[in-house]
């Protein structure tokens, strides 16, 4: 019996362990931290051996195959030693793919991937297809394969997950954007991070499709350097001449595809607003048409799609001030889209754990859109330095309640209060969901 070692006992790792058990491996899961009770219970239910609070290096070294959590860098000694010993180390996505015969639509990108993933899933489900959503959102891919079955999988995939992929091959891949993010995992190299994202099309053939954002130079530059046989479908905010393309013209999404798969709809009919969501809708609609989903089903799905929690989420209008939760904006590019979509004078709540942000990229938008800045973080010096001369009112806070009350003080009738931190959340919050939920709670208690 082959031995499978799973490193990391979160959603991804436990899913991989259960799939391994179902497929006949001798499975051992190891996590140097304490496991959550729900994951312990699952492992016990499936009679899977595990340890927590440590890594038993001797037992791990006996593995025939290691599946590692995306949170574990390749640079740690345990991974390096395992690879040096000839043990194959892969991601849960790769492990799941080896036991999957369904059609896969895979989405990656620095920003927009969750929205596009949920859009594609919403369209396919509305069309009555057998479909599951997994990966970085929804269930663990491996867990779903172990316990259920679907004919189509819509997978949101991070660069960390792609790093551990070898044979993974989606039928349709979508790349929404590439902007600097997570560079601490890539030796502070944007080139390494970008190459990681492009692993999504590594194994695609001429029978597969790659939908990508042509408006981003970082994407088009890289495509000019590589040669892959996949059928490419660019999408853009402006008119494109290519036979296979998606673009916006005269406020209409226009998708040009072969064999009567073309499609159009008014941007005004989208339930989610903003230029970035029009781009997301183009990518999702193109994927749906490639899967032969009816045009009317796509239109109805886009009209009913409610968006992603913590991403430009309308929380409440109080005293004629709109409160908007964009806590999922953990980098500059995401906040750029948020500020760009604002149509009212905006009180901006920003800050957290800085990931090497170049705030100057937001300066023009801040000058035109922002009336006051509320800093929410333990170290706000870079934010104050970047915008202190452009915005009259800049205040520092260190709790969500204090931040919201400060924003309420600056906002008047007709304004908007936008939480779009452009930073990670770990200085004051458990994660971006915790940050967004606290914002919503305070706002709803005003």
Looking at CATH, the homologous superfamily of the largest domain is Mur-like, catalytic domain
In CATH, the architecture of the largest domain is 3-Layer(aba) Sandwich
Helix and strand composition category:
alpha/beta
Supply the number of helical segments: 17
Helix proportion range = 25-40%
Number of strands: 20
Query: Can you give the mean pLDDT?
Result: 92
Q: Main sheet: which strands, in order across? A: 7-8-6-9-10-11-12-13-14
Rg is 23 Å
C-alpha end-to-end distance: 60 Å
* Highest CATH level, the class of the largest domain: Alpha Beta
GO molecular function, one term: UDP-N-acetylmuramoylalanine-D-glutamate ligase activity
Protein name: UDP-N-acetylmuramoylalanine--D-glutamate ligase
Pfam families: Mur_ligase_C, Mur_ligase_M, MurD-like_N
Subcellular location: Cytoplasm
What does the model show?
The protein is globular. The protein has 17 helices and 20 strands. The chain has 3 domains: 3-94, NAD(P)-binding Rossmann-like Domain (Rossmann fold); 100-304, UDP-N-acetylmuramoyl-L-alanine:D-glutamate ligase, CATH 3.40.1190; 313-444, Mur ligase, C-terminal domain (Protein-Tyrosine Phosphatase, Chain A, Alpha-Beta Complex). The model has no long low-confidence stretch (mean pLDDT 92). The relative contact order is 0.09. The chain has 446 residues and is of the alpha/beta class.
Keywords, please?
nine-stranded mixed β-sheet, Protein-Tyrosine Phosphatase, Chain A, 17 helices, alpha/beta, 20 strands, UDP-N-acetylmuramoyl-L-alanine:D-glutamate ligase, 35% helix, 446 residues, ATP binding, MurD, Mur_ligase_cen, six-stranded mixed β-sheet, Rossmann fold
């Amino acid at each position: 019996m082959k031995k499978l070692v799973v490193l990391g006992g979160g959603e991804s790792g436990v899913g991989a362990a259960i799939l391994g058990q179902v497929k006949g491996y001798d499975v051992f899961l190891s996590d140097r931290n304490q496991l959550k009770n729900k994951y312990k219970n699952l492992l016990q239910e499936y009679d899977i051996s595990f340890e927590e609070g440590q890594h038993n290096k001797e037992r791990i070294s006996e593995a025939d195959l290691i599946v590692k959590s995306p949170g574990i860098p390749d640079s740690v000694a345990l991974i390096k030693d395992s690879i040096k010993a000839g043990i194959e180390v892969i991601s849960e996505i790769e492990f799941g793919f080896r036991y999957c015969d369904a059609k896969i639509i895979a989405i990656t990108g620095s920003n927009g991937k969750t929205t596009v993933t949920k859009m594609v899933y919403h369209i396919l489900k509305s069309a009555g297809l057998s479909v599951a959503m997994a990966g970085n959102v929804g269930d663990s891919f491996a867990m779903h394969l172990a316990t259920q079955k679907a004919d189509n999988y819509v997978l949101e995939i991070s660069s960390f997950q792609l790093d551990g992929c070898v044979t993974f091959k989606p039928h349709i891949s979508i790349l929404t954007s590439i902007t600097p993010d997570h560079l601490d995992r890539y030796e502070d190299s944007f080139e390494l991070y970008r190459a990681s994202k492009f692993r999504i099309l590594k194994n695609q053939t001429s029978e597969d499709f790659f939908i990508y954002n042509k408006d981003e130079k970082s994407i088009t530059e890289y495509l000019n350097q590589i040669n892959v046989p996949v059928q490419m479908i660019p999408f853009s905010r402006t008119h494109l001449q290519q036979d296979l393309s998606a673009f916006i013209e005269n406020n209409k999404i226009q998708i040009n595809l072969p064999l009567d798969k073309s499609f159009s709809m008014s941007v005004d009919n989208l339930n989610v607003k903003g230029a970035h969501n029009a781009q997301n809708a183009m990518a999702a609609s193109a994927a749906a048409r490639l899967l032969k989903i009816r045009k009317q089903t796509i239109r109805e799905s886009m009209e009913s799609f409610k968006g992603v929690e913590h991403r430009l989420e309308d929380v409440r209008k109080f005293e004629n001030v709109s409160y908007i939760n964009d806590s999922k904006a953990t980098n500059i590019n995401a906040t750029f889209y948020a500020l760009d979509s604002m149509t009212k004078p905006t009180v901006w709540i920003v800050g957290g754990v800085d990931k090497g942000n170049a705030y100057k990229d937001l300066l023009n938008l801040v000058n035109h859109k922002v009336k006051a800045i509320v800093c929410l973080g333990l170290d706000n010096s870079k934010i104050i330095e970047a915008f202190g001369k452009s915005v009259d009112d800049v205040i520092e806070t260190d709790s969500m309640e204090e931040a919201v009350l400060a924003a309420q003080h600056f906002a008047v009738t007709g304004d908007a209060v936008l939480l779009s931190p452009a930073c990670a959340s770990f200085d004051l919050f458990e994660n971006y969901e915790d940050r967004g939920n606290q914002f919503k709670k305070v706002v709803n208690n005003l």
